[in-house]
Amino acid sequence: MVAGTDGDGRKLFHVIPPGCLRDGVNGKEIDYGVCVLRLR
User: Per-residue pLDDT tens for 21-39?
Assistant: First the structure.
């Protein structure tokens, strides 16, 4: 959860679907099946 940029009190929620986050060779990876995001 992060604060919105408009300053009106809204919050932004981000969810990674279960089973998509994994430990890769160089750090965490998010595998969506179509693409893999590598987080270092």
Answer: 999 888 999 999 999 999 8
* pTM attached to this predicted model: 0.56
Q: Are 24 and 30 within 8 A, CB to CB?
A: no
Structural domain of 27: 2-39
CA atoms of 2 and 10, how far apart (whole Å)? 9
To 10 degrees, the CA torsion angle through 13, 40, 23, 14?
10
Count of domains observed in the chain: 1
Q: Are 28 and 22 in contact (CB under 8 A)?
A: yes
Q: Which residues pair with 3 in a beta bridge?
A: 11
